[in-house]
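Exercise 3.2. Students should predict the tertiary structure of the chain below and write it as structure tokens, then compare their answer with the key that follows.

Predict this chain's 3D structure.
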Amino acid sequence: MGTAANMLCKPYGALMIGTAAGAVSTFGYRWLQPRLERWIGLMDTCGVHNLHGMPGVVGALVGVLVTAAAKSEDYAATGFAWTDVWINVETKEQSIQGLVGFQFAGMFCSLGLGIVGGVVTALFLRVVPIENLSQFFTDDAEWEIEAAQEIGIEQHQQELTQTVHNEAVRVFESHTPTFGYVRVVSPIPPTQPLPAPAVGTDEGPSVY
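Answer key:
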């Protein structure tokens, strides 16, 4: 909805706006993002451009259109003239055209800050040498964990990876078919042999 969130858009208008924003976002994910990555090397790992960027432009344009079509007397008649902006319109201190201009100015200022800031950041990253670029794709190094402080972050990562692997193997190997029960796997270390299920039953190394 953007800047039109506090304006009268009617239910059908809200549905149209949501459909347009969803279509633009999906188009960005499915078609535009892979091409931006291939053409200019834009690594949008979190999909910020598709989720916030393009739908944000849609919301800004909706704000322009709704403002241009608004009538101050409609808002006053329905009790929505509660802002100083619409009071100024009613007293002729501000015009609808002026409000539309403010909407356009705000949209272009936001786009300018985003584009210029992104270009400056990209140039800075190209000029300043970065030794280990892969560390910027993970945030585990930014967390201070007591175990990691004692044994070192690399060793901790190795042990954590091995633990996750062992747990996955244990769950996979301990899974047997059940009949009408909910299985809760018991904490049996993967290094120990799993007990065999009783003959003629579906009971295994689990607690029901």
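Discussion points: Residues 175-194, 201-208 have pLDDT under 50 and may be disordered. The chain is about 60% helix and 0% strand.
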